[in-house]
Amino acid sequence: MSKDIRIKKGLDIKLVGAAQKELDNAAASSFYYVRPEDFHSIIPKLVAREGTHVKAGETLFYNKSVESMKFVSPVSGEIVEVQRGPKRRIDAFKIKADVNQDYVNHGTFNLSGKKAEEVKNHLLASGCWSFVKQRPYDVVANPTLTPKAIFISGHASAPLAADLNFALLGKEKELQTAITALGMLTDGKVHVGVAKNSDSIFTGLSGVELHKVSGPHPSGNVGTLINKIDPINKGETVYTVAAQDLVIIGELLLTGKFNAERVVALAGSSVENPRYFTTKIGATLDTFIYKNGIEKGANHRVISGNVLSGKQVGESGVLDYYSNVVTVIPEGDDYELFGWNKPVFDKISPSRALTFSWLNPKKKYDLDTNTNGEHRAFVVTGNYEEVFPLDIYPMQILKACMYKDLDEMEALGMYEVAPEDFAVTEFICVSKQPHQKIIREGLDLMLKEIG
Amino acid sequence: MSLKSKLHDLKEKYKGKKMAPAFNALHTFLYLPNEVTHNGTHIKAADDLKRTMNTVIMALVPCLIFGMYNAGYQHYLAQGMIESANGFLGASFWTIDNLLIGAWTILPLVAVSYGVGLAVEFLFAVIKGHEVEEGYLVTGMLVPLIVPVDIPLWMLAVAVIFGVVIGKEVFGGTGMNILNPALTIRAFLFFAYPTWMSGDKVWVHGAVERDQMIAAGQSNLDAISGETILGSYAQNSTVAYDYWDMFWGLIPGSVGETSKFLIIIGALFLIFTKIGSWRIMLSTVVGALVMGLIFNGVVDAGIITDSSKFYGLMSVPFWQHLIIGSILFGAVFMATDPVTASQTNKGKWIYGFLIGFISIMIRVFNPAYPEGVFLAILLMNVFAPTIDHYVVQGNVKKRMKRLKVKAA
Prior knowledge:
The complex is a heterodimer. By secondary structure, chain A is α/β, with parallel strands linked by helices. Helices cover 20% and strands 21% of the residues of chain A.
């Protein structure tokens, strides 16, 4: 059974440098890093101390407020350093990988006849719970809350996103197992959004409610899916899991091993030969970005994640816990003579104010990181609504977050949103306001005050 | 060393200093800054506030140029020195003489408006340590277009200071103001110096001066009459212009608001570039037509007879309200100011409609002065947040209802 969802409001940001469908193996990384900051709002309690040896899948730390929630090492090796920031906050675990990988064996987990509680405990103990996120607040899910439904997006619409059908090729068994397991956690359905007019790897799976999504970005965002299918009300929770993380969950249930392997797209206009790599969570990027990739030390930005919501990491950076794309684009730290009033042909614009991207909607652009203007107060109205498909007033909710009115934030729909839902409005913002940061801070405030 | 790197060094030098906002404002006029994104979206669309404001200014330029020709044309026409131009391309309109005298009177208005207004903006930016925001670029262009041609420059300067400080800066600057700054300036002039803002002498260049000369005893001169169409209607007298003159704009009036044709061209440009809100423009026009129809109906029903002092304006055919006075200029360039208008799409319909509706109502009933567009827009500026509140509440209620259905 499938239902169609047509998104009209949005903006497809077409960039040059999409990954070709070739798969390479990344060189083995000698060091791996796990950063607790990838798990937003989690306060880590250290388990694995400096100098100890861990197996792949062995606990590095757990969540201070939910002690059963473990976070595990992606590889086996020696913890050579626990890097700390101010107030002894744990910044990163630096793990020197063994040549021969050694996994913690959780044993095959047979789903038939298991209760929801058992599945949950297994995922928590094995470290796979870290892939289960929740709304409201867009954080790692609180296992004590029962979700009304689970949402998965099988349609990547973000600019230069990894093609899930390619990245997940041959993983049907893992996906099916993970979805069956997750389905046991909810009384509701497991909703999966797939692109219309394309064969998705999810189409053949059982136990899912399939939705064919069409339209411009953010049609592939899980937040859009939730809003169109079953919006979150106060007091309700939904779980979301990224498609690529289902593979890790599925493999754990099938084999008992936490295998942090992931197919990652290397994309962006600075990359000579953009393509896919098999690597692992926490691997250093230098293991695959240079070979037929980017020029070392050139003036470009390396992003773990996509250009809209990813994290700037630099060439010596690390693949973060959730990303399946690494994007490299040129930096834009240069002046442009009369850049504010001359006709613009080489940048994307939702308006036609001497900007000509509307003439050629299929053209792919090579955008850099220049802000194309300075930060200003909100002035222009009505343009966010053109690209924002959720049934929420975007500018009003952003302003409510800025003046920290909790009642208003709640009334306007704060439980339904995540920062990434505001990526397109941030991209087109004439006033160059940091929408995603504003929403993240708003969510953090609500999490702290309301919980 | 190139200009670019010289300016870059200067920018670094001023960084953190008091004068930094002032320098940056000038610098960013020349060069789009080298600022890059941090976290959040790593790429940004091409539009910024400068480009947006610049687009509005481009839409206004034809009105300004036409205003210059028209100032000269009305001046010479009233003195009987030239023939009436027949139509938009009339030979006696687009002449160098007209332009010269028009530019001579209007360019100082533009210079004072920008000079004084931007000085105030720079001052506040330096004191408060924020960047100079672009809001005044459009305001500074609008102000000379909505005042009578002979307004003394010192009055304009005082009004601009009042408008920018009280109308905008006290609320926190661009983006925070409740009232449209350009209209605040006009309202200040209107209430502080009413003799310079209404009557039959202020709309034609030289008319006031001529009056003063006659009063001083030069009885060989004839007074120049520069009655506007609204003025004629308000006094139940006949109108000396035909509809095409009104449409093309060959009539006395505030500097930039006379040519309906060029205003419509500007409106189409703003709608095409997606900078101006077509919802507000359209609904304002609809609101004005509805009010005009109501008045026509009242006259047709015989409730108001030609003995009433409102008869003249009430009996104006409803569509004609659009080509007299400043309703179109207000609808296209004033009501659409995004900061002071309604911010929701639904709200924009209501807001615009009420502006049109109330404009014509004030135009007809105002005993002192037969025009009400700027008052109507200022009034609706005040109510725009209320309109938005109820529109947004609709969305909130939907969410509450969803919750209740679940709970039941």
